[in-house]
């Protein structure tokens, strides 16, 4: 069965309590300029070498052990990806913000597939 989900990690998420303070700290840590845009009021993407992004996310911050995905799989067609998840029997949510779908692996690990531009 051909899958619309690419075998590539699009981004790694890190939950943070204050998006602007975290942006400044991570940019300082990595020697980057904090000049990118904060998306949706709670997301800042730091470009990483190799194409994956490091995503700081302050939405619904509940501490470092909350149930946010640690990374997302990339797709160019979020609708096809969601439909594929349904076909293989993966528990999944509806498309959020027009670009994200959360889903679970057989062990209940929370994962994400997203149709977003690759950072970097």
Q: Say what oligomer this is.
A: single chain
- Binned strand content: 25-35%
Helix and strand run: EHEEEHEE
Summed over residues and divided by their number, the pLDDT gives a mean of 86
Distance between the termini: 31 Å
Question: Any overview of this molecule?
Answer:
The chain is α/β, with parallel strands linked by helices. It has two helices and six strands; from the N terminus they run E-H-E-E-E-H-E-E. It has helices at residues 19-30, 78-87, and strands at 5-15, 43-47, 53-57, 71-75, 100-104, 110-114. A six-stranded mixed β-sheet has the order 2-3-1-4-6-5. The mean pLDDT is 86.
Write the topology of this structure.
Layout: E1 5-15, H1 19-30, E2 43-47, E3 53-57, E4 71-75, H2 78-87, E5 100-104, E6 110-114
Parallel strand pairs: 1-3, 4-6
Antiparallel strand pairs: 1-4, 2-3, 5-6
List keywords for this structure.
single chain; 120 residues; alpha/beta; six-stranded mixed beta sheet; 2 helices; 6 strands; globular
Summarize this entry quickly.
The chain has 2 helices and 6 strands; from the N terminus they run βαβββαββ.
């Amino acid at each position: 069965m051909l899958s619309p989900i690419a075998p590539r990690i699009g981004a790694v998420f890190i939950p943070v309590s204050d998006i602007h303070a975290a942006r400044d700290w991570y940019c300082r840590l990595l020697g980057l300029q904090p000049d990118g845009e904060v998306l949706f009021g709670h997301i800042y993407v730091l470009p990483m070498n190799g194409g994956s992004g490091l995503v700081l996310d302050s939405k619904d911050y509940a501490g470092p052990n909350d149930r946010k995905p640690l990374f997302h799989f990339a797709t160019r067609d979020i609708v096809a990806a969601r439909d594929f998840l349904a076909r293989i029997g993966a528990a999944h949510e509806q498309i959020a913000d027009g670009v994200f779908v959360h889903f679970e692996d057989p062990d209940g690990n929370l994962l994400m597939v997203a149709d977003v531009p690759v950072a970097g």
